[in-house]
Amino acid sequence: MANNETVENTDKSKPSGDAKPAAKKRPSGLGRGLDALFSEAGREAPTMAGGTEPSGEIVRIDVGSIHPHPEQPRRHFDDAALAELAASIAERGVIQPVIVRPAPTGHGYQLVAGERRWRAAQRAGLHDMPAIVRAFDDAETLEIALVENIQREDLNAIEEARAYQKLGEDFGHAQESLARLVGKSRSHVANLLRLLELPEPVQQAVVDQRLSMGHARALINAPDPITLARQVEDKGLSVRQVETIVRDLREAKTSGKRKAKGPAAADPDIAAVEDHLADLLGLGVKIVNSGARGGIVSLKYSSLDQLDMICQRLSGERI
Questions:
Q1: pTM, two decimal places
Q2: Distance CA 226, CA 263 (A)
Q3: Tens of pLDDT along 252-302?
Q4: What whole-number distance in Å separates Cα of residue 111 and Cα of residue 94?
Q5: What is the DSSP annotation of 212-233?
Q6: What is the spatial distance between Cα 249 and Cα 228, in angstroms, rounded to a whole number?
Q7: pLDDT tens digits along 167-216
Q8: Distance of CA 20 to the CA centre of its chain
Q9: Of 176, 163, 161, 166, whose CA–CA distance to 313 is shortest?
């Protein structure tokens, strides 16, 4: 390493009478975006990183010493796109470094961001690749992995929803803070979390890109989402068609119940209000209208975080 880089990377700066106070410590990578993370890496160091300590510098690390994170939000990697990237890397090398942290096991490194590049580098037969080594904790690691994938639109809706659920349950993030973290609206986060109410086969169809997020949202209120999801695939139904079918099924079901009990016929306007409130709150909404006697509005929540959001909204607290 050149001498000027050695001086640049030490804390023993030359004393002087007009010595300036030490530079203010940068905040951790969260909330600053990936560009900020990369910009503070400095110049690329030509040395190998067999036992590199976290420094924020770009170093070269053995590809075989890097391991994927078990909680990586992204699970689906398109094989054709990966092969294309591997071919590009074989010809030009890895242009953008991956982000890693020392592995919790003490052996090698754990990926924080850039798993697709790492997989492609393996396919291309590279022995080492550029990396930024940072000392992130578990929460920061998952947050940065989530932000990177969302910024690059690499996650499908279910992967994104599961990552939000993980951050909420394990690290105490409310929907509002999750929305700020990824630069999305709170309703976007809430609506994605609602997808996890769907049966596993329907969720898997979204992961496999056999169903779109729009189809999945329309299926949430279906009496039998699995059967209807199969019809969507077999007949190529549009989202609007699915919404109409679900609305008709719900009205028929409600009408049948009311005929058995004797109340008035089902009101399609009530169903429309339910759908509107469900989209607004990101929760399951049920309205039972008893006419002049009033009625009942019930909200379905799937986590304590959603219950907390309901309580805060009803009490007028800011969330």
A1: 0.51
A2: 31
A3: 776 665 555 544 445 677 777 787 787 777 778 888 877 777 788 888 877
A4: 15
A5: -HHHHHHHTT-SSHHHHHHHHH
A6: 11
A7: 788 777 788 888 887 788 888 888 889 999 999 999 999 988 899 989 99
A8: 42
A9: 176
What's the rounded Cα separation, in Å, for the pair 97 and 113? 9
What distance in Å separates the CA atoms of residue 128 and residue 166, rounded to the nearest whole number? 32
The answer to whether 69 and 145 are in contact (CB under 8 A) is yes
- Percent of the chain at pLDDT > 90 equals 15
Counted residue by residue, the chain has a size of 319
The verdict on whether 140 is a catalytic residue reads: no
* Beta-sheet strand order (sheet of 98-102): 44-48, 58-62, 128-133, 98-102, 109-113, 66-67
Given the residues 115, 143, 148, 159, the one annotated as active site: 115
CB 66 within 8 A of CB 98: yes
User: What is the rounded CA–CA span in Å between residue 250 and residue 33?
Assistant: 44
Q: Which two tokens stand for residue 118?
A: 């790492």
Cα 158 versus chain centre, distance = 9
How crowded is residue 62: how many other Cβ atoms within 10 Å of its Cβ?
16
DSSP 29: S
Cα-Cα-Cα-Cα torsion 32, 33, 38, 42, nearest 10 degrees, comes to -20
Contacts 24+ apart (CB under 8 A), 87-95: 87/124, 88/120, 89/117, 89/120, 89/121, 89/124, 89/126, 90/124, 90/125, 90/126, 93/126, 94/121, 94/126, 94/129, 94/130
Tally of CB atoms within 10 A around 244: 13
For the chain, where are the alpha helices, taking DSSP H only? 3-8, 33-39, 79-92, 115-123, 138-151, 157-171, 175-182, 186-194, 200-207, 213-219, 225-235, 239-261, 268-281, 304-315
Q: How far is CA 289 from the centre of its chain?
A: 38
User: How many angstroms separate the first and last alpha carbons of the chain?
Assistant: 51
Q: Would you say 214 and 241 are in contact if contact means Cβ atoms under 8 Å apart?
A: no
